[in-house]
Amino acid sequence: MQLGLVGLGKMGGNMAQRLRSDGHEVIGYDRNPESNRSAASLEEMVAALSAPRVVWVMVPSGAPTRATIADLAKVLEAGDLIIDGGNSRYTDDQMHAKDLVEQGIKYVDAGVSGGVWGLTEGYALMVGGDDDAVAMAQPIFDSLKPAGAGGFVHAGPVGAGHFTKMVHNGIEYGMMQAYAEGYELLQATDLVPSPDAVFSSWQQGTVIRSWLLDLLVLAVADDPGLEQVRGYAQDSGEGRWTIEAAIEHAVPMPVITAALFARFASRQTESPAMKVIAALRNQFGGHAVGTAGSTTDVPVS
Amino acid sequence: MQLGLVGLGKMGGNMAQRLRSDGHEVIGYDRNPESNRSAASLEEMVAALSAPRVVWVMVPSGAPTRATIADLAKVLEAGDLIIDGGNSRYTDDQMHAKDLVEQGIKYVDAGVSGGVWGLTEGYALMVGGDDDAVAMAQPIFDSLKPAGAGGFVHAGPVGAGHFTKMVHNGIEYGMMQAYAEGYELLQATDLVPSPDAVFSSWQQGTVIRSWLLDLLVLAVADDPGLEQVRGYAQDSGEGRWTIEAAIEHAVPMPVITAALFARFASRQTESPAMKVIAALRNQFGGHAVGTAGSTTDVPVS
Amino acid sequence: MQLGLVGLGKMGGNMAQRLRSDGHEVIGYDRNPESNRSAASLEEMVAALSAPRVVWVMVPSGAPTRATIADLAKVLEAGDLIIDGGNSRYTDDQMHAKDLVEQGIKYVDAGVSGGVWGLTEGYALMVGGDDDAVAMAQPIFDSLKPAGAGGFVHAGPVGAGHFTKMVHNGIEYGMMQAYAEGYELLQATDLVPSPDAVFSSWQQGTVIRSWLLDLLVLAVADDPGLEQVRGYAQDSGEGRWTIEAAIEHAVPMPVITAALFARFASRQTESPAMKVIAALRNQFGGHAVGTAGSTTDVPVS
Amino acid sequence: MQLGLVGLGKMGGNMAQRLRSDGHEVIGYDRNPESNRSAASLEEMVAALSAPRVVWVMVPSGAPTRATIADLAKVLEAGDLIIDGGNSRYTDDQMHAKDLVEQGIKYVDAGVSGGVWGLTEGYALMVGGDDDAVAMAQPIFDSLKPAGAGGFVHAGPVGAGHFTKMVHNGIEYGMMQAYAEGYELLQATDLVPSPDAVFSSWQQGTVIRSWLLDLLVLAVADDPGLEQVRGYAQDSGEGRWTIEAAIEHAVPMPVITAALFARFASRQTESPAMKVIAALRNQFGGHAVGTAGSTTDVPVS
């Protein structure tokens, strides 16, 4: 089928390639003229599509996605469908759908997982929206998803796709941190000369085998002991939103929260909180001051 | 090759079956006369083995394993090998090896993962010990492990096998809790009618696909919404030891610790700590007392 | 000076009493006709005040406070001052101030701590707003605050008062949970027959002596072992907002978050997350099934 | 009364001074000849005391305390009493008491809180031991403790004193971290120009007023914004033991554990765990690689 695709970066570009190789006609647009775009403007892209049109938005979440959808609303017409495949917050989806429904434009949110491996292995899709809207784009979803029974879920109404993807990423944070803590403990002991060899062996037969474990084994194959990588990690929104949703629903999420906070801490050169601890220890115990030559340095508290 | 195997329960029994089907001669002993044992006593089992003997101990960790190894030490001789395949703490291994070396008996510790699936899929093995001791049992390890390059690691000297298995289980705790928190949040929102369907779809193409996820999908297939299972979880030692090792090595492990504490909390009908919170709230705010009919119930604190 | 006071519940009523006993004229209004109100409507209250008027709002945060401020905006005039002394979120303050500035009405937010003890001991005040607005109400603040150098801070511009109070309550959550965990551990050991006696002794000379500790000692004096109180705790907004602010500013807050999550968990009769853990343990280990009579129940994982 | 005191460092020296000023005769010994010691050896110290003797040991916990008690056992006799006032683990106390009872030497463990302020304000004491042993030293305890009803508790049998002190310190960790997190969040917002002023104001009227808060206000008076102190904190044993005891008793202690882990993390220049996170993010998302000039940098996951 025909698809308009806005955003031809790493993710959008790969998705266009996978869709075309499965027989779809993709009219791509990116504001970057050096991209591999099929149209020089949103208008040109829309003009190249037959009604009812399906347009997939694959740009950064927040302001860029909101602006793109607002611009599309000016050039699309009733019966057309916009799919937001970026990493938007589910509350943005609910706002977008409400705005568009006045014009009769349908809206679907699609959480997409798979990263750079999606081109060849397929993308896991989690979509939210009305049944008829989802049905309009089903051939696209079928081509993007991996072969097999899984990899696609119509999770619920508008917002459910990104909510589900958000939870997916929250779980991902927790799992990654679990492996990370285990790796650090293996490095900390003298008993185990090669944590890398241990992780490699875990790829088969263990309870903890997973795709993330496979990726970590690839990483240590390139960089034994992870000596070349800095212990510094960004977070991309979904982790934060997961905790905000947990707070809204009064769900305890200690593991995923700890994983998020570990990333925050990794970006601090020094912890302001720990200055308070150090200052207090000095106040009640004079911990900074040693009494040389005494047998008696009972820590005071 | 020949192997003495002490302990023919769920794990030991399956392992004996897998080894025999691969051509090994297993002389099994269990103190339970109704087990499928080949020998009626440790002495009888040892008498049936040619020197140098290899005996695999597969009994509960702690006192039962310590007693079994002490009994074996009386009937084995220099050059023989004892493998502790149970879930012993690595510090027990170091004690056992030290005791046995005086008699010239070799010692290897083997962490075994794979659960009830190991019989058909193979067991992941993490072993600790001297090279010559490990080599003596390599044919056994090769038959127990899954097909493929992974599933076996000689992790280091005595203790390294169980240390590695302990860390494996710690990671398992964290991963399981990450999935669990995500599942709870999906259940808490009205947006997603079927968290079960979401988890099923995640088996393909996602970053979080794993064997544990596959197992969870099997579980919800049997019991949709997990309505039949109680929210109550035991812990089996390795999680606790992992945190103790983290404390020893000053390694922060917030995720694995949170997962362990969630299990502790699941076994309390009421939290004693939260009684303190409730009592304090009542003291400073009279939170238990409402003023009916007033617009002004500003929570006091 | 004159003060209009909207909301005569537990907090507002006590504050009116403290202000009057210090010589101020308080015109109180509450929508409840059975309250001890001086005026039967906002209009009547405002009519009783000389310009420029100062009106203190002490009603529940969220919709009630927003509605009260909107109603006041209709009857106040340029140069008057509204103080929100409730537990509003600081973002609400910023919205209120922006709305009111168009009419020339000044706005101050005041976080108030002290609970039911404030009547006699004074209320700690944290205020946000422009210098001239804060100055208009300084005599009121001076009467409400405790004697001594502390107990009042002009924390910054509009919103700073409630932001500061929010952080205060976040810290309170963490401190309370620290005592609670310690109390639970003392109860869990056989070594210490009376945790209550221990806590009582801690009121003097220790590093951890505090007003909260004093309150806890009062609580255990009334209810030894806290046997009469349920381990169930509400949370009142500020804890949640503190974590949301932490997420916004990428500040790791493991302790305050753990305290909040402990309250969430206390309100669950069963943890949905732990059902996942239990289901998984059953899948890989058949943990629900014991093999009676065997020596070999090595937990499988 | 007479007291032998081994260890004349910061804590022991101050305690000797407080006891002497209250009329006790203190025979002090320290292995450091430059200390203010009354005796040049343990033997000389013991010889200066009339039976039944009371000797207070105030040296670092672990090996030094164990060695000192072993040495004292050689020179004391039946009916004498040893008090360990250091920061020993309660399990060491149980071992010491068991060893000494064979010689008829009594044993009491005393947890001491108060730090450098104890000299003037008194030390909070938590003691464990038999009634008759505690009674022998009651005049010493009475002089060391602060004036007032609190500050002393006979918490239970041998070990209960140090167990109680351990829990006290665990609570202290949690409280300090709660203040620290709040301070960091106030620093992170632009709304509050002076977190120091806020903390100072909190000393009166608030729910969170405490001695630790008073100390923090002293600290920021010396060093506004804590700019001179490094965000680096040691831990002194009791925090670790508290978590180990929590694990032993299956008590969830998320707050105190988080406080301990924050100290561990503060001593790492880089987190090994976060290298794993960064490596994984790079594997699945190519997060280190940006596509310049594209509108489409949807984070991939």
From TrEMBL, chains A, B, C, D:
Question: Start and end of every 6-phosphogluconate dehydrogenase C-terminal domain?
Answer: 161-295
Keyword set includes Membrane? no
> Which InterPro entries does the entry link to?
3-OH-isobutyrate_DH-rel_CS, 6-PGluconate_DH-like_C_sf, 6DGDH_YqeC, 6PGD_dom2, 6PGDH_C, 6PGDH_NADP-bd, HIBADH-related, NAD(P)-bd_dom_sf
In terms of SMART domains, this protein maps to: 6PGD
UniProt key word Oxidoreductase: yes
SUPFAM superfamilies in the cross-refs:
6-phosphogluconate dehydrogenase C-terminal domain-like, NAD(P)-binding Rossmann-fold domains
Query: Which one of the record's GO molecular function terms can you name?
Result: phosphogluconate dehydrogenase (decarboxylating) activity
Name a Pfam family for this protein.
NAD_binding_2
The superkingdom listed in its UniProt entry is Bacteria
Q: Which UniProt keywords apply?
A: Gluconate utilization, Oxidoreductase
Which Gene Ontology BP annotations are present? Answer: D-gluconate metabolic process; organic acid catabolic process; pentose-phosphate shunt
Catalytic positions are 165
Which family is this protein grouped under? Belongs to the HIBADH-related family.
The protein here is known as: Decarboxylating 6-phosphogluconate dehydrogenase
UniProt organism field = Nakamurella antarctica
